[in-house]
Write a structure and sequence with these properties.
single chain; alpha/beta; 4 helices; 7 strands
């Protein structure tokens, strides 16, 4: 009985030591619908009365159009992957010193959906830096949309989900920053 307890204790100790030695779990595979996507449908899930939302949608669409890896389709049923671009205000975050010049922080979220099962496969979010001047808001919007496209492109080119090589840990080249 004592030998059995000692053996179990040794196995538990060895197992816990090997778990401590592993810093990260192995990378999980990227969902096949993302990795194999060539036909893309882009939907605008933002406020269509908002000019910034429409501008962000048009910029993201133009980025996808310019990428030879993807073919944009007009029917979600014909797509390998459906993208929904969301334009959102981050609740509870306000910039400005008084109610006249107050601006709300904004974010863009890209939801990746399997068109056949309607399952959400992934979410990517980029936050737009706050700005009071319209020219700076425009620059920040451009930068956020560009980064969102960069994140999407990096994700679709990956074969596995590895935090060390995630697009979020990569930085834009200097010429892409605004």
């Amino acid at each position: 009985m004592k030998h059995r307890i000692a053996a179990i204790s040794f196995v538990l100790l060895f197992s816990s030591m090997s778990l401590l030695a592993q810093s990260n779990p192995p990378s999980a595979p990227l969902p096949a619908a993302i990795a194999n996507a060539h036909k893309i449908f882009l939907g605008n899930a933002g406020d269509t009365d908002n000019q910034d939302c429409l501008r962000a949608y048009n910029e993201f669409y133009a980025s996808l159009s310019g990428d030879a890896h993807y073919q944009l389709v007009l029917d979600p049923a014909a797509a390998d992957l459906v993208l929904e671009l969301h334009y959102e205000v981050r609740p509870g975050e306000i910039v400005g010193h008084n109610s006249v010049d107050t601006a709300f922080a904004r974010q863009f979220r890209l939801v990746l959906i399997d068109p056949h099962t309607h399952t959400i496969l992934w979410n990517l979010t980029e936050f737009e830096d706050n700005a009071l001047l319209q020219s700076n808001r425009n620059k920040n919007l451009d930068a956020a949309v560009h980064q969102l496209y960069y994140d999407f492109n990096g994700l679709t080119q990956a074969s596995a989900v590895n935090p060390a090589t995630s697009p979020r840990t990569q930085h834009l080249p200097d010429e892409g920053k605004k």
